[in-house]
TrEMBL record:
One of its GO terms (biological process) is methylation. Residues 105-184 form the Methyltransferase domain. Residues 4-53 form the Release factor glutamine methyltransferase N-terminal domain. PANTHER family: HEMK METHYLTRANSFERASE, MTRF1L RELEASE FACTOR GLUTAMINE METHYLTRANSFERASE. The keyword Transferase applies. The keyword Transferase applies. This is Release factor glutamine methyltransferase.
Length: 281
């Protein structure tokens, strides 16, 4: 069942109208031959964002195709928490003034680039390295960075999580310490994926969803390895989106490393665990 809102988006897109222009028209003025194929695709559970080729996130439109996860509203909370922490990295007395330092971030599992690009657009002296294992996803991220005018402060590289930042990496690409590592990694337990709605399990990239048996494969790697790549002064931070049931396990993982302070779980609007934040000691 397609919601009226989605139907309006699809019909307006097919006819080259805004939603407001569409609503102002009479039904008999609309050429069904133009929009019916889009409604048929949606009826087969193809997500509206893939059909129209974009998805709004943080008030910006992001280009999407089947190689990337469709940006989710809950990920805006992750962006919000990073933005809130920004002043920690600015030299005292220069908040809001001309940037005097570069704040370096890595967005691990960048996908469409929605996190990296939104942060680059909102935080003027930030440079972001977006890492993804999917070359196809990175092409979309690059297009988005260009579209939003921040390609000069976003760089996208293929890699396996934080491997490109380690001294052991065969083609080591990155050497500097990072002020912030942010990630919305795949975190859905493998067997849960089959229970998800068809729009997700049949259309979105499996490698963007599957977090292994307990969903924590990538989160575990990030929590264990991030302190090796975060700056000590000012203390670097790790920000992760997590599954609603993963808060206690993620806190335990972070505490076991003994390398973090200020470990916090932030709940989303539904009162569910959603974001993990911590500073390196
Ligand atoms: C949940 S999606 C997040 C995409 C985007 N950051 C967002 O929030 O919409 C996870 C991303 O991690 C990428 N990924 C999966 N395994 C990876 C790995 N080993 N190293 C780097 N990225 C990986 C996927 O290709 C996917 O783009």
């Amino acid at each position: 069942m397609i919601s009226r809102f989605e139907k309006e988006i699809l019909v307006a897109h097919a006819l080259g109208l805004t939603r407001a222009q569409l609503i102002a028209k009479r039904t008999d003025e609309l050429d069904a031959a133009l929009y019916q194929p889009l409604l048929d695709r949606r009826a087969k559970h193809e997500p509206t964002a893939y059909i129209v080729g974009y998805q709004p996130f943080w008030g910006l439109d992001f280009i999407v195709d089947r190689s990337v996860l469709i940006p989710r509203p809950e990920t805006e909370l992750l962006v919000e928490k990073v933005i809130e922490s920004y002043s920690h990295y600015l030299p005292a007395g220069r908040h809001g003034a001309l940037p005097v330092t570069r704040i370096s971030m890595a967005d691990i599992g960048t996908g469409s680039g929605c996190i990296a690009i939104t942060l680059a657009k909102n935080l003027p002296n930030v440079t972001v390295i977006g890492v993804d294992s999917s070359k196809e996803a990175l092409k979309i991220a690059q297009k988005n960075a260009e579209y939003h005018g921040v390609a000069d402060r976003c760089r996208f590289i293929t890699g396996d999580m934080l491997e490109e930042f380690t001294t052991k990496a065969p083609r080591r690409q990155e050497t500097q310490k990072l002020d912030i590592i942010v990630s919305n990694p795949p975190y859905i337990p493998t067997e849960v994926i089959e229970t998800l709605e068809p729009e997700v399990k049949d259309w979105e990239p499996r490698q963007a969803l599957d977090g292994g048996k307990d969903g924590l494969n990538y989160i575990r790697k990030l929590i264990v390895n991030a302190p090796n790549h975060l700056s000590i002064y000012p203390s670097g931070s790790l920000f992760l989106e997590i599954g609603f049931h993963q808060g206690p396990a993620v806190i335990e993982l972070a505490e076991q490393t003994g390398r973090y302070s200020d470990i916090k779980i932030v709940k989303d609007l539904n009162g569910q665990d959603r974001i993990f934040t911590a500073r390196v000691k």
